[in-house]
Structure formats: C-alpha cells, structure tokens
Write a structure and sequence with these properties.
Structural class: alpha/beta
Number of strands: 18
CATH superfamily: Metallo-dependent phosphatases
CATH architecture: 4-Layer Sandwich
Order of helices and strands: EEHEHEEHEEEHEHEEEEEEEEEHHH
CATH class: Alpha Beta
Distance between the termini: 41 Å
Helix content: 10-25%
Shape: globular
Radius of gyration: 19 Å
CATH topology: Purple Acid Phosphatase, chain A, domain 2
C-alpha cells in the first residue's frame, strides 16, 4: 500500500487567523501525512508580550492553523528558531500538547538529528531536517541545543548510516538553505543534492528563500529546491513592516506518493497568496511536464559545470553575495561562510538601529 505525503512551506502566525474559506486545500483531503516548516519558535508569552521582539516567531494562534491543515509534524531546522532566545523545549512541548510532532532541532546533536518516522501498511517514511548556519541557523552540538547541521559531510554520513541497516525506508531530507529571494539553487547545493540522491536519499525538499523554485527528477527521485512561504502574513517588526515582495506570493505545496522506496506520483500544487485579504488560492496543479515548473527549472538536467556558468548569468541575488560553486571546496567555502555571516551581522546591526528593514 502506498502513502501520500504533502510538504508545506513556511508557516509563521503571530495573531489570530481564520482558516475558514481562506485556503484552497482540497488536495490535503487525500493525504496520509502532512508536514510543514514552522518558521520560528512558539512564544512562551502572549503575542502582546512578544510584540516588541525584532525576530520572527509564532504565537499560540498558529495551533488552530496547523490543525486545520491536518499537519501531523513540523520541522524546526530554521534560522528563526532562537529569535525569542528561549529553549527549544518551549516550542516542542507546546506542539506535543496539541498532538503535533517536531523534528530537526533539539537539546543536542543526537536529538536534533533524529528523524520523524511515519509508517503505514508496510511503507515507512523517515524525514530528516537540516539548517545552514550561513543564513543564521544555530547548529546543535553534542553538548548544546540547536538545529541539525546542514554540513555536507554530516548529510552524507546521515544517509550512509541509515542505508547501512535500512534499505527499505523512504528517506526525505529537508533543507533550510540558499539566500532569501533567490530563484535558483546554489550550484554547490544542487551538486550536493544530486550526490545525496546517489547515496540513497529518496526525496529532497528545500526552503528559506521565501520564493517557490523549480524541481528536478534525478534517478527517479524528486529534488524540490524551495517551497517558498505557505502562510506568512505581513507583520510589524519594531518600526519596520515585514511584507514580502510580489515574487514571494507564488507558493508551492508538493504531494509525493510512494510505495516503499518506489515513487508512484509527484504533484506540484501552485498557489497564490494575497496579503491584503490573507487568502491562499490554487493557481494550478501540475506534474513534471507542467508549464510553471518548467519555467522555474530551465536548468533541469544541466551538467554541474554548465549550471555554474548558467547560474552566474541568471541568479537573482547579486549584491555582495558569493556563489557557492562546489560543496567539496572546503577552504573556499569557509571564507565565503565568514564573509556572508559578517555581512548578515552588519545588516542585523543596522536593523537594530532602525537604519535598515529586516526581511528574515
């Protein structure tokens, strides 16, 4: 028997939100499993108590939204988990009290690295979530809480450890990666995704850019580079109003149907978000031949070296941000990491001084 899983993008709700008639989600009715990204912690205090926080967080008002979407589990490996400077257990306990599981972050590296596991009639799905520290994710260590590290060797070791003893489970890797508002995958991250498929990962789902990106089918396995937002209404951050540009209003939910490790079907549900009415409407449901998907993945099937050249010409984020070309270039990537982190710290300082708008 097969299992039908749905993956939803960023959910971040900080005040009461009415789900009645606001989201076209009929495709969820046939899902056996719904997973989503909870962007930011759930505040231990009320929304009013967190109102002055400059970071991105959820109030308890997110719970009825998750319930309405039939979300069984959320992943927490993202760069806003510690914006409220509270331990992760506040969020995991709040979720557990509502019967919602969480994964991708925890009290230490061992806990953060545990997968969410779902079994139905002989088909087992194991989902791991990882976050990139270059964009602000706080790595878990053996003696420190945080998110599961998105480090190439750790990713490769994770799938190798799974496949050493388990050749039957359907393994999903969920990645919080790339730059905000970038339309295409970083070459090194695309390269890594292809290699992870070769090592035994069955599906890869990406997030963080806040825009929906394209997808590739590699050796029969899907790589979805970014789902974009799902429900991330505008909000006030200090003196600034957080409002995503129009390019972020296209959103993607993906359905993957599998029997064991065999993928039977993949569907791309393209939606549009209207920030004025807080409505999420269905634009189209496509398969791999759909025109929206093809328009966002003109690089599908390109060899790695060719894609690096193509990305240099077509990337959408150019100002002061380096290109990650090869995940095996440890020294070069370390220098780029330091530069991007320093740039990010400078931007945060300007935001704190009310001299620049923060996006998240």
């Amino acid at each position: 028997m097969s299992a039908r899983s749905v993956f939803l993008g960023d959910i971040c709700v900080h005040q009461p939100f009415s789900t009645a008639g606001s989201m076209e989600v009929d495709f969820l009715n046939s899902a056996d499993l719904v997973l989503a990204n909870l962007e930011g912690a759930i505040g231990a205090a009320s929304a009013e108590g967190n109102a002055k926080a400059m970071g991105v967080w959820n109030s308890v008002d997110v719970m009825p939204v998750l319930k309405a979407l039939h979300v069984q589990a959320v992943w927490l490996a993202n760069n806003h988990l510690y914006d409220l400077s509270q331990p992760v257990y506040h969020t995991t306990q709040a979720l557990a009290a509502q019967g919602i599981e969480s994964f991708g972050a925890g009290a230490n590296l061992e806990v953060a690295g545990r997968p969410f596991t779902f079994t139905q009639a002989g088909t087992t799905i194991k989902a791991f979530a990882f976050g990139w520290d270059v964009i602000g994710c706080r790595f878990a260590r053996t003696d420190r809480e945080g998110v599961n590290p998105l480090v190439p060797e750790h990713l490769l070791q994770t799938i190798r450890a799974v496949r050493k003893n388990d050749q039957r489970s359907f393994v999903v890797f969920i990645m919080h990666w790339n730059y905000e508002l970038e339309l295409y995958p970083q070459p090194a991250q695309r390269q890594l995704a292809h290699d992870l498929i070769a090592e035994g990962v069955d599906a890869i789902v990406g997030l963080h850019p806040h825009v929906a990106q394209g997808a590739e089918l590699v050796d029969g396995k899907p790589i979805i580079y970014s789902l974009g937002n799902w429900l991330f209404p505008p909000r006030q951050l200090g003196q600034f109003h957080l409002r995503f540009p129009a390019i972020a209003h296209r959103e993607l939910a993906v359905t993957v149907q599998n029997s064991g490790r065999n993928i039977e079907d993949v569907r791309f549900h393209w939606h549009r978000y209207d920030p004025e009415s807080n409505q999420i409407s269905l634009e189209a449901t496509e398969d791999w031949l759909g025109p929206i998907l093809k328009s966002l993945t003109p690089f599908a099937g390109m060899p790695h070296a060719e894609y690096i050249r193509w990305f240099r010409q077509h990337r959408s984020r150019r100002k002061g941000l380096p290109i990650y070309a090869n995940y095996r270039d440890n020294l070069g990537n370390a220098f780029k990491d330091r530069f991007v982190k320093a740039r990010h710290s400078a931007i945060n300082a300007l935001v704190a001084l009310n001299l620049k708008r923060g996006l998240g």
